[in-house]
Design goal:
A: 211 residues; alpha/beta; Methyltransferase, Methionine Synthase (B12-binding Domains), Chain A, domain 1; 5-stranded parallel beta sheet; 9 helices; B: 386 residues; TIM Barrel; 3-stranded antiparallel beta sheet; 15% strand; globular
Chain lengths: 211, 386
């Protein structure tokens, strides 16, 4: 088995020490870092996503795969940056004001990061103002908003309103997620889309960016 | 009860339907339903956040929430168990307060300055999250103790509602009999999920402290009430919106044994058991039935695989369902006619032969318009009769 396939397998099994070691070995073998990311790590992550979507693996396994990616990227990211390889895209993410639930948001954050995005994670209970200031400063391609409760999802509307007020709405795509979110709600508040789970969020955003 | 014409008019429809449908006490009706028999109408339970309790109480001109429950024809009354007499919960300078398990909690306000402002008590810090080894975790000294409760008044509290109502021993939302929930609070949700893969010994150690506590606690509660609890409720969220949060294999490995132990204890005292889990738990239902579970609560209709019609067809002869009304979309965002259609669908699908208690899948949330709350209860009485 070549080393990129081994990396893919290790991501799939969520073995983060192994993923990190194999990534280092691949670099030592002079495999281009972009190939390690795209032909090894991301391949593994895509398979994990598919297994999650058909309910063959669940939150613990998805979390492990996300963490394995994170470990590998601690080595790979600085090298990619030095080689002037641009990130796939820029994403700002957070749980909206009044809501402190973050396991779903954290997995989404890890998986975007693992898929080659530059991710700014603002954490939990983030005000509309903070989201909009960050969009203004970092100019991300995508803003991702999360909530668990139905009353807290209304805070997403405040973010949309403020983006419009600051004339930033056309500069950033907005994706929303969390248990009480569906397409109807995304349409109601004028978000560009919603995703029911982390893998489909990545797929949707990749589609927007034409990747 | 306020007797102004406006309030009388608001109450008229429910009063009229109840007078037409009802021929037995709430308790008789509820217990028949649980035993898979058809009473006069489908038993009704009610879950609401306090803000909606207040709003609905005022809307119908009732003087108290208890009076509202009486008017709405709610067949169940909650018993919250013994009174806490342990050391007072430690308050920290940052405003957080420790709970029963020593987990720091804070009040988080949502919808600040809007009509739907409310709050929840949330975990601020999980005391075991940062600990690396089992040895470190073993040194933790804030495991809850059954000695911290006064069990002497539970019986009298339940008797207040007898013989008219069916009493559910529900515990508190944060301290309800469970396994995974306190583990999430103590260790952090993310870390405990990782532990389930990486550190089984840590999972088992924390879990066993929780089980020891609830086993001793529930024995004392059930003994003290001498038959005055009609239903025991436990709860542990293992379902997510689009599928279970953990695999059936993992649940069997870590949680099935004590799930059955908890049920067996209640059954020793001849108390039927209701279990709450949000989300998609369909794959687990055959195991729940095998463990002797009597009632599965939530039946969250917007979660995958939780359509009440299909659940009833597949498992209805072996288990009672409670819930089925959507609080995520239909109640907060739909129109009264959508709410009525939802209730009619569930009742038409699940009431036949008993074994169905209608209720919302969780608390009616603060963002729900009052006209939808009214439509919900009217629909319960409109379509619930046998």
């Amino acid at each position: 088995m070549d080393i990129l396939t081994s990396i893919e397998e290790a991501v799939l099994k969520g073995k983060f020490d192994e993923v990190k070691n194999l990534t280092q070995q691949a670099l030592d073998q002079k495999i281009p870092p972009n190939d390690i990311l795209n032909k090894g790590l991301i391949q593994g992550l895509e398979k994990v996503g598919k297994l999650f979507e058909c309910q063959e693996i669940f939150v613990p396994e998805l979390l492990m795969a996300g963490m394995a990616m994170k470990e590998a990227l601690t080595i790979l990211r600085p090298i990619l940056e030095k080689s002037d390889i641009p990130p796939v895209g820029k994403l700002v993410i957070g749980t909206v004001e009044g809501d402190v639930h973050d396991i779903g948001k954290n997995i989404v954050s890890m998986i975007f990061s693992g898929s080659g995005f530059q991710v700014t994670d603002l954490g939990i209970d983030v005000s509309a103002q903070k989201f909009v200031e960050t969009v203004e400063k970092e100019k991300p391609d995508v803003l991702a908003l999360s909530s668990l409760y139905t009353p807290t999802r209304l805070a997403m509307n405040d973010v949309m309103r403020l983006l419009k007020e600051k004339n930033l709405r056309n500069q950033v795509k907005v994706i929303i997620g969390g248990a009480p979110i569906d397409q109807n709600f995304a349409d109601m508040i004028g978000a560009d889309g919603f995703a029911p789970d982390p893998p489909s969020a990545v797929r949707k955003v990749m589609g927007w960016l034409g990747k | 009860m306020k007797e102004d014409k406006m309030f009388q008019d608001r109450r008229a429809r429910i009063n009229e339907l109840r007078a037409k449908n009802e021929r037995m006490t709430c308790r008789e009706r509820a217990l028949m339903g649980v035993k898979h028999q058809e009473p006069d109408r489908v038993p009704i339970d009610n879950w609401m956040v306090p803000e909606i309790q207040k709003k609905t109480t005022e809307y119908f001109g009732c003087d108290s929430y208890d009076e509202l429950l009486g008017f709405l024809g709610i067949d169940f009354r909650n018993n919250y168990g013994p009174s806490y007499v342990g050391q007072s919960f430690k308050k920290h300078p940052d405003g957080t307060v420790e709970d029963l398990w020593g987990v720091k909690r804070k009040t988080v306000v949502y919808g600040k300055g809007t009509a739907h402002q409310g709050s929840y008590s949330e975990v601020a810090e999980s005391p075991l999250e940062k600990l690396k080894t089992l040895e470190e975790i073993k040194k933790y000294d804030h495991w809850a103790s059954p000695e911290w409760w006064d069990y002497s008044k539970v019986k009298a509290d339940c008797m207040v509602y007898h013989p008219k109502y069916c009493v559910i021993n529900v515990g508190d939302r944060l301290d309800r009999t469970s396994q995974l929930k306190p583990m999430m609070y103590l260790r952090g949700m993310q870390q405990i999920f990782i532990d389930m893969v990486m550190n089984p010994a840590i999972v088992e150690f924390i879990r066993d402290r929780i089980i020891e506590y609830f086993v001793a606690y529930n024995h004392r509660v059930f003994k003290s009430v001498e038959g005055e609890i009609d239903i025991f409720m436990m709860g542990d969220d293992i379902g997510g919106q689009t599928g279970p949060m953990l695999s059936l294999d993992m649940w069997r490995k870590y949680f099935k044994k004590a799930f059955k132990t908890y049920i067996d204890i209640a059954h020793q005292y001849r108390i039927p058991v209701m279990y709450h889990s949000c989300g998609d738990v369909k794959q687990f239902i055959p195991d729940f039935i095998e463990c002797g579970l009597d009632i599965l609560q939530s039946c969250q209709p917007k979660a995958t695989n939780m359509d009440i019609k299909k659940l009833k067809q597949e498992f209805g002869k072996d288990i009672t369902f409670q819930g089925g009304m959507d609080i995520q979309h239909v109640l907060p965002l739909g129109k009264p006619e959508d709410v009525k259609a939802m209730a009619k669908y569930a009742l038409d699908s699940a009431k036949k032969g008993g074994g169905y208690i209608i209720c919302t899948a969780h608390n009616i949330q603060i963002d729900t318009p009052i006209e939808n709350v009214v439509a919900l209860f009217e629909a319960y009485h409109e379509y619930g009769n046998y």
